[in-house]
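SEVERITY: medium
COMPONENT: batch folding queue
REPORTER: lab tech (J.R.)

DESCRIPTION
The queue accepted two submissions in a row. Attaching both inputs and their returned structure tokens so the on-call engineer can compare them side by side.

ATTACHMENT 1
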Amino acid sequence: MNRALIFVLACVCGLAVANIYYNQPLLVLFAETFQRTAANTSILSMLVQLSYAIGLIVFVPLGDKVCRKKLISFLLMLNTISQILAAVSPSFNVLLISTVLIGLTAVTAQIVIPSVSIISEPENKGKNVASVMTGLFAGILFARTISGFISHYAGWRSVYWFAAGMDIFLIMLIINIFPKIPSQTDSSYKQLIGSLFQLFKTEMILRKSCLFGFVMFAAFSALWGSLAFLLSTSPFNYGSNIVGMFGLAGVVGLLAARHIGSLADRIGEKHVVSIGALLIIAAFLLMWNTPITIWFLIAGILILDLGGRMGLIGNQLQLFTLPQEMRSRLNTVFMSTYFLGGAIGTRLGGEIAYLFGWHGLSILGITFAGVVLIFNINMRMFAEKA
């Protein structure tokens, strides 16, 4: 491992995960093109996250069995085809199908990250993984902004052509720089998949982290599944380029990621999750007042991103207290339920915002975060089930 390789792999992770966030600023544009309501088109944001969760289960465990380099290249090729299909979609149903395919094949980052932990020197493993994760967070951060900018000046179809071009670029990088890593297991594919459900059944910490991750990402995604619609209406009437700019608020969570890990070392992962839930509640309390001034929304998004990042890091760190030989599969289970929560939150957010506006969205987010806070404070019910 060297700095150049780490940087390239961080870019791969960022551009790969960006594929599931490009469509969030485009929902109003989809509605205009296919003559649907913005609340109805929010199903696209839900589907891409739901299919991503399924892709984690279907494809990521194969990383322990087959050549990772070939697997990543294959998934990127399928994702390229899916992006092109979305770009030329003649109907909303074709766009739905292409969105599902994009989500299923956008899981490259979750194959790269465990690979980094394998090929790193032991003394640099944590630093290298953290560096690659920073690329992942950066991809999430800038995807919405890039999408909003391109769609405003060149139309929403150009966003998918851009994504296809980035996939081709990544394939070239992987072919030339990604190292060959020996197989980690002789288990059959059926055994690999079966072990995921067994781990969920037997590991109480995994079940707890999955529940909290599910609910906290649902709260976070509820906003982004409805933001394009809410900001396109009175009194703001913003276009997709302005909506995309709100994604830059995520820079707070990006810069804070390393410090969140240090905080967890000092006060414990459980307390980090509770603080994250409190921040999410505070964020949605601020967003309640968005119709008064846009600054309440900006402040709320900044706090929401920080709280969501604390939830993700705190819950993942709890998994790392379990044996090392199962961590790749633990991460598969956790991330699949995490994005399942995001899919459901996106859909609920879109519908609630369409019916009840900013106040309904705020109540939904506060309810989600409140569930995590209550259960995390009282952990005895989990201990009894273990």
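ATTACHMENT 2
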Amino acid sequence: MADTFRAWVIDRADGGQTCRLRTDLTDADLPAGDVLVDVQASTVNYKDGLAVTGKGKIIRAFPGVPGIDFAGTVRASTSERFEPGDQVVLNGFGVGESHWGGLAERARVPAEWLITLPEAFTPMEAMALGTAGYTAMLAVDELERAGVAQGAEVVVTGAAGGVGSVAIALLRGAGFRPVAVTGRETLADYLRELGAVEVLPRATLSEPTKGPLASARWPGAIDTVGGAVLANLLKTMAYEGTVAACGLAGGVEVATTVMPFILRGVRLVGVESVHQPLHRREAIWQRLAELMPSERLAEMSRVVPMDEVPAVAEELLAGRVRGRTVVDVKG
């Protein structure tokens, strides 16, 4: 009998889709690639939530396996970069969208999509960071490149979510003073434990404001929300302040003016996490290893077994998930 493994598989059905946990898959079902990985951990990201619930057109080729990131151990390889037993991590490159993803006990991918897992992390710890943590580190890196000074206040919107939670901890570790903005004020103590020096209600930036500019405060910002929040955030940036934008939970349209840019020299930097080159991926993951202690990861994450993925996806889209959710793929 062929060696089988489990995976969440999404397929078309009567104009919609089905998502079920299959237990009968074999290596022959996997897409092409030169590295076969025994996946140990994955996560439920926002895209995964949309894919699993069918509330977003995420899966581009059917049948498909969601899970835009994973960590595990190389089972077989025809690449010179990896050999059996190596621990690896992957995020991006359309995995979990156009290529079978990490919510499966096995994955086969091109070697150039993988990096060696930093020694500081176990696969579970790597996925407590996952794409959200990787994106947060990219955002912090963009602020540092822009010259935002250590010790400066950096505001983080959507602070209780996956990217926001990690961003708060990373900013504090990198020497900034993170200020959290959240619609879940009951999580204020959690955000302070992660390193926030102040917690502000969402209304601070979500309520309509008059005029093209407001009182200048923030030298740096990480925006995970978009929409009206980003528009208001731009109005409140300090002279030559920088906003690193990496989310759209609040909308993709931004109604703003050129005034923050031409009167205060504000910079809006986009954070793209899917197609970063290998050298930057490796540098970002090493920086994560330097700045994120394992005890902090435990504070901001929980672990669930594979069969809880649909329930977690619903909770995530409803805004009821705090921090990061790690999926124990073998559990």
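NOTES FROM REPORTER
The longest helix spans residues 123-145.
No errors were logged for either attachment.
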